[in-house]
Amino acid sequence: MLPKKLAISIELFDTILSELRDSVTLVDPNLDDSPLVYVNRAFEITTGYTKEEVLNKNCRFLQCDDQNQPEIQVLREALKKGEPCQVVLKNYRKTGERFWNELSISPIRSDEGEILYFLGIQKDITQKVDLQKQLVLEMCDLRDSNKNLKEQAETDALTGLHNKRYFLEQYPAQFTFAQRNNLPFSLFMMDVDHFKAYNDFYGHIEGDHCLEKVGQALRCVFKRNTDIVARYGGEEFAVFSVGGTALFGAKLAKKLQAEIERLNIEHQKSEHEYITFSIGHVFVQDPAVCSHLELLDIADQALYAAKSKGRHCIVQKIIE
Ligand SMILES: Cc1cc2nc3c(=O)[nH]c(=O)nc-3n(C[C@H](O)[C@H](O)[C@H](O)COP(=O)(O)O)c2cc1C
Predict the structure, then answer these.
(1) Cβ distance 122 to 103 under 8 Å?
(2) Residue 235 annotated in active site
(3) What pLDDT does residue 1 have?
(4) Considering the chain, what is the average pLDDT of its residues?
(5) What CATH code is assigned to 10-126?
(6) Is the CB of 76 under 6 A from ligand 1?
(7) pTM to 2 decimals?
(8) Please, is 159 exposed, middle or buried when counting C-beta atoms within 10 Å of its C-beta (0-12, 13-18, 19+)?
């Protein structure tokens, strides 16, 4: 209740309401189709309709053909129960322009509790909503570019395989996973034989083509989601594969060699006259017996042994 000396006339009250930036409306639910019986100046400015055009009409005309909004159902139910509620509706100005209307309604009751009017306060929050949408879009863009950047940082641009950085990040984690779960695994270190001679003789562009094809062959052989397949350096590749048996690992190594032979890439500077591959394969049955760094060393030694044996071969080491 206002203090007595602040008691004001309806006209003064209307003048005060006309100064507000938000729209104020009164709806009479006791009249047919619950029409508007009062709108302030801000309502006219926001919607573009004059009070003469809107009084005695239900306010739903602001929805135009957009009446399937879920929030309208929320509003309907609150009105039916005579409860206050707040919704955000898509409304349309007289010009047809869409605006976002944050509508709060409250029942105004007589002393006996009968609903005399519903008071509506409408805030045009179009700028805020559009800004939020813009922000969400920008955040999605940012997330996409972050994802792309991360992918780029983890991928070898030439072969599309993972790069060494990714391998060295993921390999220790997968190694620990295998250790904890007592799973056997294989580590393969491999490289293209006489690749420097190939590059010198055929040029870097051909050298790159050769590595691309080798990358495809690796992808064909090591297909499991959990396999980490990476270009480890120039012509060197590494694969870490959890599970399987020593025999299965050996089969994969042979299959890879066969795939590379099938590429049939001429190499006049090699004793084999085509591109060949040396593979060092370590199979670990009991993951508790070595560390991931030791294992890298052992795989390197196996690759070195394959090279020393005349290249184009597989050296397998089993750790039990
Ligand atoms: C006080 C009051 C103000 C309202 N103001 C709006 C408004 O600004 N925009 C709107 O789309 N609907 C407004 N409505 C809601 C509609 O008048 C109507 O109640 C709603 O569309 C659901 O009823 P219907 O299913 O008969 O359309 C208001 C309702 C009340 C009671």
Answers:
(1) yes
(2) yes
(3) 58
(4) 94
(5) 3.30.450.20
(6) yes
(7) 0.61
(8) buried
